[in-house]
Design brief:
mainly alpha; 0% strand
Length: 208
């Protein structure tokens, strides 16, 4: 009973801070683009291009699902599936690691943006990883789940490259086709994909 209460409290805190940080960052993105002379819609367009934002949204929805009453046939049930929680956990941990290694020096926000940055890149990755460990039962994952876990980042890659072709904007330098070309982007993506798949296997192994 105590463990269940701790899990529910953690889920509620993750959901509360997650939704608040996502909303704040949306406002920041829209205001920033409008200051540059773009429309609010373009601000939303830019906001939805970041893997950080989409993955924090993913984790926040999962946390909200665990906060909701567990009623039969609940619409939240699918978000509590072990492989879904694992997909969110792997991606948010990778968000934190990639930001820390590749992007931290390039992004030094101030004010409210500094707070959302800490929440998105540090607090949520650490807390959600602990939450994953607590709520995903041992033996609930199979090795084949790694491909379901990898489906989300793979879908993001297709999505972001299509956006780039249409809007001529890329959220991260290592997938910027304009500057690097498709050959180098393929090399970069292959390396990152290998890390994702390796992380997926590691998470699954931890629960076997």
């Amino acid at each position: 009973m105590a463990a269940l209460l701790v899990n529910q409290l953690t889920a509620r805190l993750l959901a509360m801070f997650g939704w608040a940080a996502l909303a704040a960052q949306l406002v920041i993105s829209v205001q920033h683009q409008m200051k540059l002379g773009h429309s609010a819609a373009f601000g939303v367009f830019m906001y939805t291009g970041y893997y950080t934002i989409l993955t924090n949204l993913f984790c926040t929805i999962v946390a909200t699902a665990f906060s909701a009453p567990r009623e039969p046939g609940s619409r939240w049930a699918a978000w509590r599936e072990p492989w879904v929680v694992t997909a969110a956990a792997v991606s948010i941990v990778m968000v934190g690691l990639i930001f820390h290694v590749l992007l931290r020096a390039q992004y030094q926000p101030t004010g409210v943006a500094a707070i959302t940055n800490v929440i998105h890149h540090y607090i949520v990755p650490v807390v959600f990883a602990i939450f994953w460990w607590r709520v995903v039962p041992r033996g609930s994952l199979v090795w084949g789940d790694v491909w379901r876990v990898f489906a989300y980042p793979a879908a993001y890659l297709v999505y972001i490259l299509m956006r780039g072709e249409i809007g001529d904007v890329y959220p991260y330098f290592f997938i910027d086709v304009r500057n690097l070309g498709y050959a180098q982007v393929f090399v970069n993506v292959s390396a990152i994909s290998a890390l994702f798949i390796g992380a997926g296997f590691a998470f699954i192994a931890a629960k076997r």
